[in-house]
Amino acid sequence: MSRRLPEVGGVYIQMEDELASLVVVIGASQAGAKAMTATSGPGFSLMMEQLGLAIMTETPCVLVNVMRGGPSTGQPTKASQGDVMQAKWGAHGDYEIIALAPSSPQEFFDYTIEAFNLSETYRVPVIVLADERVAHMREKVVIPPEDEIKVVSRKKPSVPPEEYLPYGSEELIPPMACLGEGYRVHITGLTHNEKGYPDMSGDVHSKLIWRICNKIRSNAEKIWRYKVIGSERPEATIVVYGSAYRSAIRAFKEARREGLSVALLKIETVWPFPEKPLLDLSETSKGFIVVEMNTGQILREVQRVAGSSRVEFVSQLGGDLPDPRGILTKIRRVLDHA
Amino acid sequence: MLKQVQVEHPLDPLLRIDRIPHIWCPGCGIGIVLNAFLRALKELNFDMDRLVVVSGIGCAGRAAGYVNADGFHTTHGRPIPFATGVKLAKPYLKVVVFSGDGDLFAIGGNHFIHAARRNIDMLVLCVNNQNYGMTGGQLGPTTPLDARTSTSPYGNIEHPFNLVHLAAGAGAVYVARWTVLHVRRMTESIKKALLKKGFSFIEVISPCPTLFGRYNRMGTGLDMMKLLAERSVVMNFIDPAEAVVDLRDKIVCGEFVDTEKPEYTEMVYRLIREKSGREVTSIVES
Ligand SMILES: Cc1ncc(C[n+]2csc(CCOP(=O)(O)OP(=O)(O)O)c2C)c(N)n1
Ligand code: SF4
Ligand SMILES: [Mg+2]
Fold it and tell me: pLDDT tens digit string along A129-141?
């Protein structure tokens, strides 16, 4: 980006640390720019308080986190999916967030654009939750002509400055005036009222936090991205996201060759977690096989949503992709118990 | 018969009147610094739509919320990188960081030195009250040796920063120190810094009678002001290393650095124009 951005009229800066990186992004976005930052593990941890600032001030921005083994310095640079829950719960307080998990360089490209569009639509930071495998992968990527790329920008106020209330609209997502546009906004990470002024009253806090959550929750069906591959009424379903998908699809194909009744649910927006396809699949599936490169994070979501079904888990730690044979074994186990 | 008349204060248009009364204690010096800042803006007839005031967290950090301009109240310690982001997106805006000594030099110290090193065009106004006022008077990086605070009940055993020396060493192009009693000089200094292109730093020594003053038995806000009046000396352009702040001896005030060097956002945009072949002056289309 340091090479490319100046060529296309963009600004690049390398900050002194990752929390400064995210704050610069927030500053640029508040001034009206589209801005992003990218990091891995420890840098993502450093960004958490500032992620909260972006959520609280409803600043559109994009963060790429290339997951590696952690905690701490952990395994630079080996693949992991250990930060999925951190992406959802890493900052203090209650909130909802959007996170997309690519499984190929093409998806990495597409999801980054999608991340900007979602962040501008919902005024929320969007995380591209990649992992080392997909980040270091070389594969064909089709870059469409510029005019074929859908670009969404934040809604601007339609009222003059005297009438504008930064957080005052009845809509879940208020129009956003930016710095330097004459609106003279005051924006704070403190709990704030419609004017944007600090207000510590319980009612104001409750109203604000529910709106920040509900703008994502009530639009979840629109935000969800997922694919169901395979049988219409499968007896077993693999649930997977990110580069672990590459192992899972191999196991899936093998299982189908053997004539097993399986489907694969590829989750593309890990947050908000797509509950509907899981609920639908649990009507016929006798069980789910969750494949993750961690000790069980999305596993908990699957257990929460499809609790009454049998849930098997394939965990891969250490940096390699999961072995498809291990996934096949778990598929057979689910079907044997059927 | 007495008639009640309401008169507008000359600085009212520069304030968010709907946010007054402010949160500061009687005898606190922060309001004086805000007043000097607003006066400087007024005297320069500064375009308030081209100004962004950024604060961190703390008593001083509330200032951004009172100015009738675009304002942003960041997380603790982060006003400088926020201001950097604004400048990178819209270099034509003037950003002023108005914050406390703890915010800017404890948790935010790293950002301060790097912004000064890059020479990003912004004015950093630091209200130095020698402690963390907002959170109950803890020691900070400017607390004098031996001073009592809520977290140094036996006297402070940490050496404080000399902020003007630090700023000069990190590369600031304009560096000055005043006390809240130097209202006229402070105002002139702020005016100068507002017009300067580059990283400017003004430290203002200010009383916190509620906490630092109370812990150190310094009397009322007025007593503390008297002390500042007695101890301060103006020594313009002496070596900032020699410009000490010693509440028991002397507080050296004045301008210490006023120089020129290439400014960062100008260099960024020069590079963009060169590499893109386009006349880009801001990445945000207006
Ligand atoms: C990350 C974080 N740590 C601690 C705090 C609590 N806190 C609020 S203000 C403050 C110190 C402010 O000191 P200073 O900048 O000197 O401002 P003053 O109140 O003295 O004007 C602290 C530690 C916080 N808000 N965030
Ligand atoms: S606590 Fe100290 S710094 Fe804060 S408002 Fe009161 S006097 Fe001022
Ligand atoms: Mg202080």
Answer: 999 999 999 999 9
**Does the predicted model carry a pTM greater than 0.90?**
yes
In eight-state DSSP terms, residue B104 is I
Q: Distance between CA B86 and CA B93 in Å, rounded?
A: 8
pLDDT of residue A238: 98
Chain B residues near residue A60 by CB distance under 8 angstroms? none
For A:25-54, CB contacts with B below 8 A are 25-33, 35, 49-50, 52-53
Q: What is the mean pLDDT of chain A?
A: 96
Burial A66-87 (b: 16+ CB within 10 A, else e): bbbbbeeebbebbbbbbbbbbb
Nearest CA distance, B193 vs chain A (angstrom):
20
Domains defined along chain A, listed by start: 1-223 (3.40.50.970), 225-336 (3.40.50.920)
Name the residue at shortest CA distance from atom 2 of ligand 2. Answer: B208
Q: Does the ipTM exceed 0.90?
A: yes
Round to whole Å and give the CA distance between B244 and B252: 6
Number of Cβ atoms within 10 Å of the Cβ of B260: 11
Pick the CATH number of B12-276 from 3.40.1190.20, 3.40.50.300, 3.40.50.970, 3.50.50.60: 3.40.50.970
Residue B234, number of CB atoms within 10 A of its CB? 15
Residue B159 per-residue DSSP state: P
What per-residue confidence (pLDDT) applies to A232? 81
Query: pLDDT (tens digit, 9 = 90+) per residue, A216-242?
Result: 999 999 999 999 999 789 999 999 999
Counting ligand 2 atoms within 8 A of each CB, the residue from B55, B98, B211 with the most, and so the one to mutate, is: B211
Is it the case that residue A338 has pLDDT exceeding 70? no
Is pLDDT at A319 greater than 70 in this prediction?
yes
